[in-house]
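ASSEMBLY PREDICTION REQUEST
Request ID: AP-0331
Submitted by: J.K., bench scientist
Number of chains: two
Total residues: 774
Priority: normal
Notes: Please return the full assembly, not individual chains.
Input sequences:
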Amino acid sequence: MSKGEIVAGCLAPHPPHLVYAENPEQNEPTAEGGWEQLRWGYERLRESLADVDYDAIVLLSPHWQTYIGTHFLGLPSFKSLSVDPVFPNLFRYHYDLNIDVDLARQIHDRAADAGLAVKMMENPDFRVDYGTITTGHMFNPQWDKPLVVLSSNRSRDYYSVEVMQEMMMELGRVTREAILASGKKVVVLASNSLSHRHFTTESAIPEDMSKEHITSHAMHLWDMRMIEYFRTGQSQRILDEMPEFTEQAIAESDGGGLSWLLSTLDIPNYPGILHGYGTIIGTGNAIVEWPERNHQEASE
Amino acid sequence: MSDGKLVGSYIVPVHPHTVLAADQNEGWGRLRDAFGEAAQRIKDSDADLLIIYSTTWPSIIGHQIIADPNPEWVMVDNDFHDLGSIPYSFNIDEDFAHAWNQANENRGLKSRTVAYHGFPIDVGSVVALKLLNPDNAIPAVIVSSNVYANRAETTVLAKACMDVVKATGRKAVAVTAMSLSNRMFTKPIDPKDDKIHSLKDDEWNRKILEFLGEGRLEDVGQLSRTIHQQIRVNKVVAFKPMWWLSGMNQNRNNLTGEVLAYEAIHGAGGAVVHLDPAASGAGDKEYDEDDVEYFSGERNVLDSQGEENEMVSEPASTNSTTSNGPALWEPTESKDSVNSNAAPKPVGAYPHARRVGDLLYLSGVGPRQPGTNSIPGGPIHDANGQPLDYDIKAQTHAVVQNITRILEEAGGSIDDVLDVTSFLVDMDRDFKGYNEVWAETLGKVGPTRTTLAIRALPTPIAVEMKVIAKAPDN
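STATUS: Completed
Returned structure:
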């Protein structure tokens, strides 16, 4: 078997507003647009990978929240209706996705061997979370690649950002090992926002962009600081500052996705590509690609 | 006014074990039996409405209320999916849901109803309705738990709910779907090994249950922040349900409480508790947090004007207006004066009201709140005189509330009002909202009325009323 490869790792946030604004056939409500900077960012990300061959997408979503370890979707397919419990007015999406159960099992088994609490999710009635669906749609609207979906183990809630990160670094390490051992080419997605303080009101027309901005200057400063690290390949500094960032920016990195992503990418020291940044009901969202395929020496 | 009321309150655990695996652990079985006992008590109470406040349905944009008359789906828990699936088909009172939504807005809350096919009813609500209302005989309503809501907002949410319960003459049961301590084991366990995660969690749980068993609900509510710090993992929703449940019960401490079961569910504290509104004959409030009628918090941050509000009013919005206006005075005591601790303090040397013969003359009444001096709907300007956005309807509601308090202190009621002179600082902006609230309140009583535009009032309020009322018989 040839050696597996991570062709890219991406920070790929999941606010349902992006799907709503795109008005795909699967989504019931319609919009006049909105959040173009981010939707165009996703377009640039898709274009960046349009000619890149890969076999599967490995995705960690903070909206499948588990408190007893990390769980993996463990059946070949899931088909249902996803209604966002927070923004049901914006997101009602019929999904039909395939799972690379073999790869999911390989990551699961390696994580178990490493001492992490893990479980395969094999209940056919399970509804896939809207974070997975939103990122899945925005990244690959054709849904023509199988997914591996990991839950967000809320160890930060139980312990601390430091403990969460330690566990996610380990999970990232075994994810990488499993991918490389699988012989498959894979894109890895962390589905989370940066700063994550919401507005608590919504304008009459949700896509009214005259109402959209970051919630506070402090949040902006944190987001720009992180993005600058992304753009300059300073992944270790991101990890070093993760506790302060997560707590002060109320960042969605609390779900572990960003730490896991950087670990899966072996803490890249090459620049990430910023495809887009924008706010959604006040939260900061960046679409960033680390094109590991162009930096293979980093994975050796 | 109809005579709707709360006929009972229950606290129930959220995890699916009681529905799907009650036979796998004796404690889970006892919780299931307690659910059955609670269901029978609810049935015997002739309740005609179940109101569920669930901690496993977080919301961000205000509170959400299920208004789909018949939500149907199959629920699978995020963690305990291996226990199985729970199909559900519930009987929701959509009319009550819509009325509650409107009542929330009337009290300054952001709120919306949810009626979408396939909306995922949360595990806590599913478990509660499956076991407390197994044949769907009693219509239900479900409300979310807002992740940003504080005590004031959660208390007002309850009061808005009770506005509708009373107005519609319902016999309602309030249910909070929640854990006590919520720290679960972070690895799978054998069901027979289940226990409360730590001795500390267990001791706190037992102390909470001791309070509840004595009917001291408001005391538990006012301990919520401490409880959260001590035994709660910082999941999405904090320990808020006691605020809501206490608000539903008029913040009382003399309910008749009974703990029907207390057991561990994967380490978390699960209890079934019944709180009967019948007075226990004992108990009084140990604490005295503010009683809040209207929410005037951060609900306009999308507007640039609102941002200024936020900067001015946070984090101590209820106190920020105390320095925004003249000094407060104790009400003047004199022959035939009527003064109330439940009304805002005067800004000069005068009483709240004075009885002369068969009439009561009230001093000008504004919307300021007793105790905090806060202004429902927000002040019209900040301490520097910079204009702020404000809600005239919330202010007008608060004026009527204060009038009611003063008249009740005199032994009368709002129905005694004979004549009102109203003062508005911005007739063009505010008359419509003021007039709507008038129609809903004093308009139904029928006093004569004169409305005047004036340049300013002593405090940063937009409306004040001068009232003459019939004096109650001595």
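REVIEWER COMMENTS: Residues 161-182 of chain A form the longest helix (22 residues).
SIGN-OFF: pending second reviewer
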